[in-house]
Amino acid sequence: MTGGDDAKRGGLDWAEAYRRLAGLAASTEAATTVDPQREAALLDERARALARPLHRRTQAGPLLELVHFRSGEQDYALETRFVLEVLRAPGQLVPLPAAPELLRGLTLLHGEVLAVVELAPLFGRTASASHGPVLVVGPNRPELGLRADAVEEVLLVSRDTLLPPPTALGSRERALVSGISREGIIVLEGEALLADGRLFFDFSEERST
């Protein structure tokens, strides 16, 4: 996984992190190789989530299909086209000593390392210490895991009804926000989120040093 110049790498015990990831890979090998029943159950769960009745708005204008979730006492939403799956019971997260607050830990998804991050610090909030579901985010393949306290629903919102981001946010934070719903849900800009170097870390480079 590659990242921007803002990735903080000093003081991390990468050897220990990869040792623990190797152990996690070994312990989950049976689950990640061939388990048709588990795979079918996961697909059914995602299908049920996406098939829930949508809260339709009557206002005209472009509609956004959103996954509504809560993290750090704040409601967020992200377009469904960026959410590949929701891990309701994610596997073990490997924390990294001295990691930045944004980086919750590493986990394995289908045999590959996935960084799980917190949104709250990006918006001046304290990250929650609780565990919860993880939204696997990426346009075509998993690029990032977003830890959530709860995943609420899939809904439709007219883009025309969104309020502009508050001026209290810095310019960098406002770039991550498409708008805010009248219910106070922060609608995230998927492209900007996946382009923010603060959320990505170059593990391969650290591993080779």
Order of helices and strands: HHHEEEEEEEEHEEHH
Relative helix content: 10-25%
Largest sheet: 5 strands, mixed
Strand order of the largest sheet: 8-1-2-10-9
Number of strands: 10
How far is the N terminus from the C terminus?
Answer: 16 Å
Sequence-ordered SSE layout with sheet pairings:
Layout: H1 14-27, H2 29-32, H3 36-50, E1 63-71, E2 74-79, E3 83-87, E4 103-109, E5 112-117, E6 134-137, E7 144-147, E8 150-158, H4 171-174, E9 177-180, E10 186-188, H5 190-194, H6 203-208
Parallel strand pairs: 2-10, 5-7
Antiparallel strand pairs: 1-2, 1-8, 3-6, 4-5, 6-7, 9-10
Describe the 3D structure.
The chain is 23% helix and 27% strand. The protein is α+β, with helices and mostly antiparallel strands and 209 residues long. The strands form 2 sheets. The protein has a 5-stranded mixed sheet. Strand 6 and strand 7 form a beta hairpin. The radius of gyration is 18 Å and the shape is globular. It starts with 13 loop residues before the first helix and ends with a helix. Mean pLDDT is 78; it is low at 2-9, 30-34, 53-60 and 205-209.
In brief:
With 209 residues, the chain is of the alpha+beta class.
Characteristics:
single chain; 209 residues; five-stranded mixed sheet; 6 helices; 23% helix; globular; disordered N terminus
